[in-house]
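## retry 2 of 3
previous attempt timed out at serialization; input unchanged, resubmitting
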Amino acid sequence: MQSRKSKIIIFAAATLLIAAILGAFSEADVKQYQGLVASKSSVGESVNKAEKTTEQPAPESNTAIPQAKNTQIAQGLLTAHFIDVGQGDSILIELPDGKTALIDAGPKNSSSKVTSLIKQLGYSKIDYLIATHPHEDHIGGMSSVIELFDVGEIWAPKVSHNTQTFENFLDAVANKGLTIKTAVAKASGTQIFASGGASMNILYPFESSAPKDLNDWSIITQLEFGDTSFLFAGDANSSIITDSCKKPISVLKVSHHGSKVGTSATLISKLKPTNAVISCGAGNDYGHPSESTLAALANTTLYRTDLNGTIKAISNGLFVTFVAEHYNDAKEAAGVTTDEVTNPQATVGGEVTAAPPTANTDAETIVYITKSGSKYHVDGCRHLSKSKIPISLKEAKAQGYEPCSVCNPPT
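## retry succeeded, writing output
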């Protein structure tokens, strides 16, 4: 019977021969393999060393660790903050490479909430600023953002509005010496950015669009990061969104604060969002969200700024984890069940897996695992340098993971 070392040498020689035939290795690679074949003892030593240091695969479990379908998935995290600005919209997006995007800035009376969050997170620049349409509840705080921060690109639809709010927005742009890029979904595609493995594309308005309703000028964008995707639709009509978006998504920013014209059963059936966020003011005069919208989203995990405050959606490219400012005010009658708000879900490639925000119980405590390891860790552990997958402590234990002896996570 051949020894282990002999098998390795034969394997290395065969690999070298195949590589030479296919031209897959460089000259340096060939020399490296030649050296491997020539040194039997070093082969044995390196193999033995690898056996001792390689972390063993995780034990088999009924629940498989979610794997990305996209092999080019980027490293890091993408976080979307759905800011509680009352009756309005504002979403701050932190990209994996440190850049930022801001979709709308809420009404003027909530501008300090937007600017304070940006400062709190340590940013001095908004790389991509998107004004979906010129209504005050979306751009009222935009002039403050432009005045207080460096701004890279500004995107807006090619439509104006005869209001002081819109004039203030244009004046702020001019005072900074900036220009506005026209947001239009060209047939060849229009991309706002491709940054840190994440990309955002404009789906609407089309080049031929000329709607009469200002809401229907809303820029519709799709943000993709690995196997996860977000759809931001401003205040657009549900029929426009249905025509613009061609595939299912992970997270839907519900259009027009949950009004009946922004969401339909047909739209939800097409998009199949696992999670949705409604941005609306508590006790607003419009009755948002509507009963029909809540009915259409009955099978979707729903978050609302009027009930949950500012909401964070964190994607690692495999799935999306939600963390809300508070959960106690959500009522089942409002379309959010007790289980949903105390145990927020994570979207895994369109499926749902338990991954709640940090709290005091095993079901609500977040720990981290790796793609091939058998241990669970706390954030910052050196073993998370190559992969970092959030999971609840309860689920980690159920899958057979053991606590890391280096970072000493909760048990």
